[in-house]
Amino acid sequence: MKKNFDKVTQILLPIFTIAGFLLTSFKMPQFGLPIQLLAQVVWLYSGYQAWKKANQIGIFVTSIVLTFIVIFGIINYWIL
Predict the structure, then answer these.
(1) Whose CA is closest to 19, among 3, 33, 4, 1?
(2) Structural domain boundaries of the chain?
(3) pLDDT tier, 79 (very low <50, low <70, confident <90, very high otherwise)
């Protein structure tokens, strides 16, 4: 089960990341930011796994920071 989930995350990772950046760059942040947030959930999972399995903490820390940046973008776009 976990191996299948890991395979799915490796498929979703580039799809959500690329789609989020493309939508944002095409001046559609209302779609791009939520997609980027979905990508960050997958990045957080993958970064955590890389940290635990290979002691590579850099990607996990970067994912945490980028998640907060995307959340700020969502708040800035829809609330403020």
Answers:
(1) 33
(2) 2-78
(3) confident
